[in-house]
Amino acid sequence: MLSASATDPNIYEGSAQYDSFDGDVIFYKYAYTSANGTNWETNPPTGSGNYEQTVSADDIANLYTVIPLRGYNNATLDNVVNQASVIRFEVDMTGAMNGSGVAFPSIDNVFLAGGNPPLAWPGGGWPDTDESLVIFLNDSGTDGDLVAGDNKWSKSVDFPTYSPFDIEYKYGANWGLASNLGANDNEGGVGSNHHVTLFKTFWSGDAIDVFGTMETKAVVNGVDQKGSGIPSVYELGQNYPNPFNPSTTINFSIPESGLVTLKVFNILGQEVAELVNNVKSAGNYEVSFDASNLTSGMYIYKIQAGKFSSTRKMMLLK
Fold it and tell me: 95 or 86, which is more confident?
């Protein structure tokens, strides 16, 4: 167990004794506990699934080795989301089967667990008593669910400032019921999880999944191509509605394929959101911007596509 440093309460430190030899590898990772349970570091940069410290001959001679100081999940301001954000999780339960390939007799509830707060992992075996640690989705057409009764279960989840770029999670069906086929942890195999990738200025977007299909994907941040027509000129449209609270829509057109960025800035010129940053084919597009986590005021949005650049203003009134 680590304890807060006497000189800096943001740094935790401790020691442990091991019998080691030159060249031995110590495998480790950090975790912290909260109301959401135990939150382990995710995706260490090694093939072992852990962080690694190799013991050297000097360490043996000195009778100790020092693990370098680093942030939890190797976090810096450049590799975490710099503001609170919202992810809408959606999972298609059509034909869903458990990890052994047996179809569920019915879908009575669907839930979400994960390694990044507010998501949490239940204890070993995912006992029924850990129900408070999972988040239940719905198929009622409310709270992030788009269409009631389509067997695509959804939930909008608020993530805190400084969440990591990689969000690790998995779903489950029929918590605490006989229809869960004998286990609450019933999507894929143990340790087989979904991952969705965020970015520094992420505000809101979707993680769209099929139950049992584990993969790493980029978050979908509400950019839709409208129709199949090819515009003749570049254009950045005025957002609508304007003024708005809290969501608005921005249209843009590009006559050639290429890298497109669309960013939002406050009146001080500070970037507060990145809505688009990828290659788009020629066409007309619509992007949604949710400013739930911003304060009222004037904002500027700017598009850059090839040599074309344009800015417009919009007003958030809460």
Answer: 95
